[in-house]
Amino acid sequence: MKISRRKFFVKSGGTLAAVCAGGLLSTILNSCKGNGPSGPSNVAAMTIIQASASNNEISISLDASSPIAARNTRAVIEYAGQSEAILAEHNQDDTYRAISGVCTHQGCFVTDYDGTNNVFVCPCHGSRFDLNGNVVQGPAPSKLIQYNTRVENNSLIITL
Question: Whole-structure pTM over 0.70, yes or no?
Answer without folding.
Answer: yes
